[in-house]
Write a structure and sequence with these properties.
Strand order of the largest sheet: 5-4-1-6-7-8
Shape: globular
Order of helices and strands: HHEEHHHHEHEHEHEHEHE
Distance between the termini: 25 Å
Radius of gyration: 17 Å
Largest sheet: 6 strands, parallel
Strand content: 5-15%
Helix content: 40-55%
Length: 229
């Protein structure tokens, strides 16, 4: 009954979609299924230093806070001080070469972005993936559908801090009250909250319904077309 009522509460937001001019999306687990490539590249970097590999399900539980945190969680704790920088560098170099091997948009995402663009909406991506990788994936897969891409860099605090969202809003030239945030994780829920934005959580990504509800999700959708129908 709780889950039924939760989905009923979502109806109001879709009835008022016209009030939003800018849609800010998370990337991994929201627009793109990157889990296989993240796992392969993570394991490659670990193997380069002789460390144990992880399954895809294990990596699923490690993602969400950026590549640095993924590597920290994947490495043996006792080896962090001596090998962290090397494993992180090996991951970044390999990912820039192989980040597109298996990565693809979730079903319905291209249609969703096209529908938003046809309605004159502006679209931003805010990701804890490093800027170069986030930009590369968006350009290769989405072409000109994405107006602004803000990824991880040394000069800006990562999600769930609001800095990246605020930068995207500034670059795209939108008013905050005309923006809405869409993501698949607890990090995204916190990011939206810290940024003062409404948040829609998606069920096709890396986190389960139970995890999203536990993180405080109040607006949840099961498929991309629920944003446009």
């Amino acid at each position: 009954m709780f889950i039924y009522n939760l989905f009923r509460k979502n109806i109001a937001i879709f009835a008022n979609m016209n009030e939003y001019d800018c849609y800010i999306f998370d990337l991994d687990g929201t627009l793109l299924n990157t889990l296989t490539d993240l796992t392969i590249c993570c394991n490659h970097a670990l193997c380069m230093s002789g460390f144990p590999e992880h399954t895809e399900e294990e990596v699923r539980g490690m993602v969400g806070n950026g590549i640095g945190k993924l590597i920290e969680r994947a490495m043996p704790r006792e080896q962090l001080a001596s090998h962290y920088e090397k494993v992180l560098t090996d991951f970044k170099e390999y990912y820039m070469q192989h980040g597109l091997d298996n990565t693809k948009p979730y079903d319905g995402i291209i249609d969703l972005l096209d529908a938003l663009k046809q309605r004159g909406k502006r679209i931003a991506v805010v990701s804890n993936k490093i800027q170069a990788a986030a930009q590369m994936l968006c350009e290769k897969i989405f072409g000109d559908r994405i107006d602004v891409v803000v990824g991880e860099s040394e000069c800006i605090r990562s999600k769930p801090m609001p800095d990246m969202v605020e930068k995207a809003i500034s670059l795209i030239g939108a008013e905050k009250n005309s923006c809405i945030y869409i993501g698949d994780s607890d990090v995204d829920i916190l990011t939206a909250r810290n940024s003062g934005l409404s948040c829609i959580s998606v069920l096709w990504g890396f986190k389960s319904l139970e995890q999203l509800v536990a993180a405080g999700a109040t607006r949840i959708i099961k498929s991309p077309d629920e944003l446009i129908n």
